[in-house]
């Protein structure tokens, strides 16, 4: 499943980001920067951006401390293995393996992958009617043509949904088009009634295959964390950068640092969980407010016996958009596990966080029974996420909402007084909303700190 399939297929090469191996090799060449051992960098957040930065900075001699609010590293790269299969609660795919720094990093970390093919799919309409393959493909082709051109009719104060419904009223209530808008757009971006009708097409992508992690995406953060001073269960409540040294107030007390790198998700910044003294510059506050934060939740269900089609993806087109309409066949890449993974997006994702496990299972099984018959059994077990209410994320990833300007991503990345720095997927204009964007941002900020110190 391509998360950014429709986005411009161009690649702005960054020489420093050729591969993870070359990145760390470059860092090693810069070891023993004079005076670095006397400087302390505190990194807030042990997600992939914070860990990437910490590894780079420690390798060139800085004293690096990572404060993490949760009880393990990884941030939104979390893997749950309680059912015997690796269920990635956050990122699952490497989106485009060619020149993507995550490709080499995954190999180094021991993360195994499987190529997922969009063509391996079946689509069902209400009533369990198998949709004609040609009809589905024609609609998908038209969908991407619309995405490439609709921005010409976009307006700064109008959402994607508003403009789309004006231009294509006959499609707005078509079940197949609801599915395409949901799983091929909302999933990749955010709520369509809040998505910018001008900037939904922004961002870059890597070429090559789409591969899914098979033994857990957390292999990458666990690998990066080796040898680092990471202090878990440390919530940062205040960062005072008014003096020469920066003071960080956290669960166990106060830390002093020469440089601070904040890598918490955009949702946490929006919630003002951390107090900044003095207040952040107006440009950064505006960017925090204007860039959107999406909501996506994932659900893994297991059975004793598989009853579904032997394809990678099974789609279902109900009347209600964003609701359990796409199923990933886990058995295709983990043959010993009879499991399906499905999703909820936008407002319906938020609704699921108020529902019990039994209610979730009932809604999912209504769809599956419409496809495969009323006699199929309930799942043996289920795992789920609640990213919107998770106080360490308050959402899934950033997107271009109404009012967002691309400059806002640069404003989110801007350092303050050469001592307060920011990383995370929401700070990477070309690769926002992706794990590789977060990784790149961490390397970028490490390089900034090194250059400022030098």
From TrEMBL:
<dbReference type="InterPro" id="IPR050281">
    <property type="entry name" value="Flavin_monoamine_oxidase"/>
</dbReference>
<dbReference type="GO" id="GO:0009851">
    <property type="term" value="P:auxin biosynthetic process"/>
</dbReference>
<dbReference type="InterPro" id="IPR002937">
    <property type="entry name" value="Amino_oxidase"/>
</dbReference>
<keyword id="KW-0073">Auxin biosynthesis</keyword>
<dbReference type="GO" id="GO:0050361">
    <property type="term" value="F:tryptophan 2-monooxygenase activity"/>
</dbReference>
<feature type="signal peptide">
    <location>
        <begin position="1"/>
        <end position="27"/>
    </location>
</feature>
<protein>
    <recommendedName>
        <fullName>Tryptophan 2-monooxygenase</fullName>
        <ecNumber>1.13.12.3</ecNumber>
    </recommendedName>
</protein>
<keyword id="KW-0732">Signal</keyword>
<dbReference type="Pfam" id="PF01593">
    <property type="entry name" value="Amino_oxidase"/>
</dbReference>
<feature type="domain" description="Amine oxidase">
    <location>
        <begin position="48"/>
        <end position="450"/>
    </location>
</feature>
<comment type="pathway">
    <text>Plant hormone metabolism; auxin biosynthesis.</text>
</comment>
<comment type="similarity">
    <text>Belongs to the tryptophan 2-monooxygenase family.</text>
</comment>
<dbReference type="InterPro" id="IPR036188">
    <property type="entry name" value="FAD/NAD-bd_sf"/>
</dbReference>
